[in-house]
Amino acid sequence: MLDSKRREFIALLGGGGLLLAAKVKRARGQQPAVPVVGFLNFASGEGYRPMTAAFRRGLQESGYVEGRNVAIEYRWAEGRIDRLPALAAELVDRRVSVIAATTTPGALAAKAATTTIPIVFETGGDPVHLGLVASLNRPGGNITGVTAWNQEVAPKRLELLHELVPSARVAAFLVNPANPASTEPVLRASKLAAHTFGLDLHVLNASTESDFDAVFANVIQLRASGLVIGSDAFFTSRSEQLAALALRYAVPTIYWGRGFFAAGGLMSYGGSLADSYRLTGVYAARILKGEKPGELPVEQGTRVELFLNLKTARTLGLTVPTALLVRADEVIE
Description:
Elements: H1 4-13, H2 15-27, E1 36-41, H3 49-61, E2 71-76, H4 84-93, E3 98-102, H5 104-113, E4 119-123, E5 143-147, H6 154-164, E6 170-175, H7 180-196, E7 200-205, H8 212-222, E8 227-229, H9 233-236, H10 239-248, E9 253-255, H11 258-262, E10 267-271, H12 273-288, E11 299-300, E12 304-309, H13 310-315, H14 322-325, E13 330-332
Parallel strand pairs: 1-2, 1-3, 3-4, 4-5, 5-11, 6-7, 6-8, 8-9, 9-10, 12-13
Antiparallel strand pairs: 10-12
Helix pairs in contact: 1-2, 3-12, 4-5, 6-7
């Protein structure tokens, strides 16, 4: 039991006192006063601020407010997949109430780390193909989650780029070789799509920021008419940098997510990350309230967004077809 002075101190601190009490009790091996959610991500916190805000909104919809009646412990791998096992192990050692394992590498690391602590994943791929769950309707075990199907729509990005630059005969495709679970299925499907459109597709690799300039220089050397950026959390966390480089090198480029488009990227197409992270928060809250993850069907994001930046198109000397404009969810004039 807490002595009277400690109770007074915590009362003065309010919500912060709750979190302090939780940390004190965890250090002593006791059950924390408030539930603790472990948040694991392959990328960086700086690049994922809108997504973590959406995750907290999902928790809040179910009555859980960070700093008041729930604590969140964040673990960011900063784009280094080799760091994920240790970060996942830290959350397991801390005996968090649930792990929100966002991004495909984060989800795989969490699944490998524990079979007892509940896990809610967020992935852009097929959870069954990735081995995360046995089925979408009955995940089983200690895991469930949300998929935005961004890997599934990757060939559509190539189609949209071809629609915008119909004269293209050569295109480039950027992947992160350090993340094969996300890269390989996207690449297979995109190569088939390239063949359909009569495109010679060149695969370029980047796993660190220092690789980016060389990637765009290669695009110019190949005389590629455009670049498709493969779905990857590392690229998502560097959306602004990639958009700036695409403009600097005058390369028509398509990625996914509003961040790339808002930073000056020509075009974005894919599932809504904000929606996926909000749903991840909702599922984490349901588990905190006692529901079993293995009995919660995997949520499938249905919202796919197309963003077009006409200002960037004009800078690149491109004319956007009307048929493409009318399909866009948002356009920057």
